[in-house]
Amino acid sequence: MTGRLRIAGGRVYDPRNGVDGAVADVCIEDGRIVASLPDDAPVLDARGLIVMPGGVDIHCHIAGPKVNLARRLEPERHRADPVPRRVVGSHSDAHVLRSGTGGVVPSTFATGYRYAGLGYTSAFEAAVPALAARQAHQELNDTPVIDKAFFLLLGNDDFLLSLLARREPELVRHYMACMLGAARAYAVKVVNPGGVAAWKAGAAVSGLDEAVPGYDGVTPRRIVEAIAGAVDELGLPHPMHIHCNNLGVPGNAATTLETMRAVDGRRAHFTHIQFHAYGSTEDGRPTSRARELVEYVDAHPNLSVDVGQVMFGPATAMTADARVGHLLHRLTGRKWVDLDVELESGCGIVPFEYTEKSYVHALQWAVGLEFFLLARDPWRVVLSTDHPNGGSFLSYPRLIRLLMDRAFRDEQIRRVNPRALEGTALADGLDREYTLNEIAIITRAGPARLLGLEHKGHLGPGADADITIYAPAEDAEAMFSTPRYVFKSGELVVEDGELRREVYGVTLEVRPEYDADIERVLRRHFEERGTIGLEDYRVDEAEVDHLARVETRRR
Amino acid sequence: MTGATTVPLARVGGVAVTLEEAVAAAADVLVSARLPLVYGLVETTVEAQRLAVEIADLTGGAVDTAASAGHEASLLAFQRMGLLTATLGEVRARADLVVFWGIDPDAREPGFQHRYLARTADSPERVHIAVDIGDARGPDEADERLAIPAAAEFEALWALRAMVRGGRRVDEERLESLGLSLDLLQPLAWRLVSCRYGVILHDADPPPERRDPLRALALGALVEDANERARVRLIGIRMPGNPVGAEAVLTWQTGYPCAVHFGRGYPRYGPGEYTGPALLGRGGADAVLLVGADPGRHLTAAERERLGEIPSIVIGPAAERAEGARVAVVTAPLGEAPGSVYRMDGVPLNRRREAAQLTDAAVLADVAAAVRARVQGGGA
User: Fold this and answer.
1) Residue of B nearest to A341 (CA)
2) Which of A87, A97, A107, A349 to mutate to test the interface with B (most CBs of B within 10 A)?
3) How confident is the prediction along chain B (380 residues), in pLDDT tens digits per residue?
4) CB 3.0 to 4.6 Å from B217: which of A83, A349, A371, B77, for a disulfide?
5) Domain boundary assignment for chain B
6) Could you check whether the bond before residue A388 is cis, i.e. omega within 30 degrees of 0?
7) Does the distance separating the beta carbons of B376 and A94 come in below 8 Å?
8) What is the CATH number of domain B10-67+241-377?
């Protein structure tokens, strides 16, 4: 068979297998890593280079209706960043790559090419309502190179909330499994549990024990307990992925801590934790409470977070937590999209910009860095900007430099609103500098482990041959912006940051088992409450170009 | 299927050929044109739309939907200020106020009111208000109605904004000179801020005589203002077919929802400039691939004439009658083709059915492959 290659003599960073910069060979055969190859296998000389698994983005927004509405909303940003059609290869091997546009919310082809160009080989779209699963898959079908998947929104789901109101929590598990399968999704996402349902009804839910209007006795706490429990029972590879109530609200750290306590030993991944880690001054300004949250997460191995770092520059708020869009619109006066979606969720979109001089933006920037720099266990505090909410995924190399290079960080600290730093750990002069091994953990090995991906985020035998090779450089931003080589499933796709070959990755799904009786109840529910039926929700196998199933492990 | 027995499926220069020959001829036309225009897209599936945009990209052509000239005002309003909206299921479940702003949706999509506005056991008490704008009338069976002279539409919207925001003076004399009055508008303004969940339905694909670049902006602004005091949403009623799918595909593949020009090797957006009618009318396009549109219904007489002057490829049921086309391939109508179609509120559906005839998607897949082979043939 084809696809043999020995990547010889590089410095290998493979934290999951305990390899921290040792000089070693990495062998590829048929798209996988193998322990060894015959001596006559082709060789890529990687002496002096740094070899890591391909990057894994645990939380980003790259497909589905809110992403596409945001694309449509920002022609001015696309205009400034064209992505030309290119021909790669030559003669019989020539292949035309698709054109597109970049900006903060790139077109699908540009998204795939640019992730690959950064050495990222997997990305997880973090919020898709079942009603739009088909669109998300269609966009992912047009997203080249990377492996991908999406998380299914269920924390404000009409049927799920009614099950809780009717005190039938045991059915929650069957319902979740049925909808995950119908949507061909990978994990369960909870956004502002109960809060979006309340918002759409013109009400608010801000505390964990406040009633969600319209659902008798249902509170955010009960939603969190039921979903986290059901995810564990189903043995989904990734735990409940939760965006807490009160995102962005001063004082919300109390809600976040309360939610972490409510999870109570079950597994849960708390996403873009930076946006949920604020105290409040007497006059209602946000302050940092990152330290307490870091300590709580450190002490509870069932919990993990991605940071949701804010990067100065353009961003687009896009969230199923539509309330946040309204707040940002009122704050900034910028254009605003707000969409209510049938039976679950909605979305809010506001393009804007983080500035160094803004107290709130500088505080958010500092809080994110506190999480990275105070975390004792990098395996459970992983990198994200909640692309494009905190900034584009293209800013990851700069973020990596902020973590690795104290002088660079200090220079940046001197430019931000100084009042915002008061009371943060940054004001104490944190001198931590991430090592390459730690970077490999927070961008590869950690996210892959949290996502339950056995074959990703490492370079041991059997792993997918998704490999990024960098030329070491003083400037970590430059180094991580332009990988020397990127391999996707054993194919060389990027050289010197430029795409050399187009491949299409897989879309990952889970299909946990469930009691089919639930479908009977569900059909009636959709008939009574919805405008489309269960069969309309189902995405057929043929609708997804390269589908790959990840097994669940029932507990 | 009428005529399928007498008209050959594929023709080149009016002569029956095999599908392979038609595909090859189409690819030759597209690749040798300086600016091929891929146009139509509204009456075909998402699968076909994906390929149509790819063909425009590979050939450095332009692509536009047959909806864009009418829908442009809504798209530009969206890009300027955003939009507060909802899927139709939310309307059915939540709305206690529905305003039909110069549109009877059942005239566009029969059964619309029954499907999305029927009062069910769960739904709130609901008031339907028809606002007739000149001849553009709301449904006859509305609970209440008011009439606004077509020439006063914008002023009426602006006055409603002022009333909804409160504390702003409305120029009554000016209103009256336009045939409007405070008494006429005040009840509607009051309803918009005192409802629990209000929805304004408007015509997002107006016919040429109803096109007004400011209406969508004014409606959007009114809804934003009213939404500060109640929850109010704006929903555009679309033309039949799959224009929403076309705009979605164009947006995810290029970043722009219509009027995209690939002539410089990357997508450029030119509403009003790179639209199908503009490129046909000015004679910018020197070849056309028409798919998902019927020349009789979607093109003006001048555009049809232009179609006969430059090499054209017509794919679709209309190909039966496309005598002047260089290449014609008859395919199944959208209503009989399997594949994905977006509802007017953006909900993506899959029409699962057996393909009794050739589909647009199947033909375009072959054309795209043939174009790709020709474009890549020369190497880097």
Assistant:
1) B87
2) A107
3) 444 445 679 999 999 999 999 999 999 999 999 999 999 999 999 999 999 999 999 999 999 999 999 999 999 999 999 999 999 999 998 999 999 999 999 999 999 999 999 877 777 799 999 999 999 999 999 999 999 999 999 999 999 999 999 877 888 999 999 999 999 999 999 999 999 999 999 999 999 999 998 999 999 999 999 999 999 999 999 999 999 999 999 999 999 999 999 999 999 999 999 999 999 987 799 999 999 999 999 999 999 999 889 999 999 999 999 889 999 999 999 999 999 999 999 999 999 999 889 999 999 999 999 999 999 975 43
4) B77
5) 10-67+241-377, 72-237
6) yes
7) yes
8) 3.40.50.740
Question: Which CATH class, in words, describes the domain spanning B72-237?
Answer: alpha beta
Please list every residue in chain A whose beta carbon sits closer than 8 Å to the beta carbon of residue B349. 134, 532, 536
Mapped onto helix, strand or coil, the DSSP state of residue B203 is strand
Hey, are the CB atoms on B231 and A202 less than 8 Å from each other? yes
Task: Look at B251 and A103 and tell me if their CB atoms are within 8 Å.
Answer: no
- Full DSSP string of A362-395: HHHHHHHHHHHHH-S-GGGEE---TBTTSS-GGG
Residue with the two structure tokens 């698994």: A53
Which one of B251, B351, B375 would you mutate to disrupt binding with A, by most A Cβ within 10 Å of its Cβ? B251
Amino acid making up residue A289: R
Q: In this complex, do B88 and A342 lie within 8 Å of one another by their Cβ atoms?
A: yes
Min Cα distance A297 → chain B (Å) is: 38
- A156, A339, A500, A535, best to mutate vs chain B, most B CBs in 10 Å: A339
The enclosing domain of A314 has a CATH number of 3.20.20
Q: CB-hemisphere CA count at 13 Å for A91?
A: 0
Question: In chain A, which residues have their Cβ closer than 8 Å to the Cβ of B46?
Answer: 138
Q: Which of B122, B197, B340 sits opposite A138 (nearest CB)?
A: B340
- Decide if B348 and A202 are in contact by the 8 Å CB cutoff: no
CA angle B254, B255, B257 (to 5 degrees): 90
Chain B positions touching A129 (Cβ under 8 A) are none
Dihedral-angle region of residue A429 (phi above 0 means left; psi in -120 to 50 means alpha; beta otherwise): left
CA–CA dist A310, A328 (Å, integer): 15
A143 lies in some domain: yes
Q: Compare CB distances from B255 to A71, A87, A202 and report the shortest one's residue.
A: A71
Domain assignment present for residue A486? The answer is yes
Tens digit of pLDDT for each residue in A479-498? 999 999 999 999 999 999 88
Which residues in chain B touch residue A84, judged by CB atoms under 8 angstroms apart? 264-266
Residue-range definition of the domain harbouring residue A487: 52-82+99-451+462-508
What's the pTM value of the predicted model, to 2 decimals?
0.97
Q: Do β-strands A313-319 and A346-354 pair in parallel, antiparallel, or remain unpaired? A: antiparallel
- Residue B224 Cα, gap to closest chain A Cα (Å): 9
Query: Cβ contact (<8 Å) for A529 and B254?
Result: no
Distances (CA, A) of A362 to A17, A281, A328: 37, 16, 16
Give me chain A's average pLDDT, please. 96
**Inter-residue contact A230 to A173 (CB < 8 Å):** yes
